[in-house]
């Protein structure tokens, strides 16, 4: 199959690309999603500029709808994440797109485990103490979230640990982390990049990584299973899509190019500094992975009864 795709692309290599490629990012400049787009724009070798187009708003739904509705001519790509490709259609009444049919998957790029992090003033030096405290003093602990997926991660944590802590939603990770640092909320379940420096400086305390293996940047941090909460595993991820019906040869070309970028030493080091791990796939592997993620998180949404306007 891939030999046929490669042959098809070779036959049309002289015709593509003939103009700049638009790479839509549904979140603002400086976000992790934006970082992925900038790496592609700076490192690709397909002969035409890649123009990063940030279209933030509505928790990524505005930009994602633009990707879905763009011409399927190979000149529009988009960055997606678990929030836009899985969670949004599960929790919002109208996203304007169905990720199962609106996009042609190109490749997953990276993954990152979530951490459980508390304010140092919370009387918990490990995960068990946090859970025991929440159970002993109902209503005393709140957790901050900056997007719909973080809310689901928090709900899954409550379910796994048997807690009923309250969610405090924020418009972005900066505001959420600011209030966590100030002690106005007590903990967060989020990706390492959100508060990596604050953990290293001792301003926040990481209790566990929600993964099956330890986090390389904080190797002393136990996994949730090691900390006494087996089964609670949360990873975010980022990938590249195109509008559905984009030519297969174009998808194959970008899949090969992006996966080669992910093998570059400086790229892997840059991603690691943000708590991200390279995780390139074939288009089919990305499609299968996203499908399985929708099944997993649909169960969480149903159990939590979450629906947003």
Annotation keywords:
309 residues; alpha/beta; 6-stranded mixed sheet; 12 helices; 11 strands; 19% strand; disordered N terminus
Radius of gyration: 20 Å
Strand order in space, largest sheet: 2-1-3-10-4-11
Order of helices and strands: HEHEHEHHEEHEHEHEHEEHHEH
Question: Could you tell me how far the N terminus lies from the C terminus, measured between alpha carbons in angstroms?
Answer: 43 Å
The percentage helix is 40-55%
Largest β-sheet summary = 6 strands, mixed
| Outline type | globular
User: Kindly state the mean pLDDT as a whole number?
Assistant: 92
**Helical segment count:** 12
Structural class: alpha/beta
| Poorly predicted sequence stretches spanning 5 or more consecutive residues | 1-11
Secondary structure: number of strands:
11
Strand coverage percent: 15-25%
Q: What's a quick, concise take on this entry?
A:
The chain is built from 12 helices and 11 strands. The chain has 309 residues and is an alpha/beta fold. Helix 1 (2-11) crosses helix 10, helix 4 runs parallel beside helix 12 (283-304) and helix 7 crosses helix 12 (283-304).
SSE topology sketch:
Layout: H1 2-11, E1 21-25, H2 32-43, E2 50-54, H3 61-69, E3 76-81, H4 82-91, H5 99-102, E4 103-113, E5 115-118, H6 127-136, E6 142-145, H7 148-161, E7 166-169, H8 173-182, E8 187-190, H9 196-200, E9 205-209, E10 235-243, H10 248-261, H11 265-273, E11 277-278, H12 283-304
Helix pairs in contact: 1-10, 4-12, 7-12
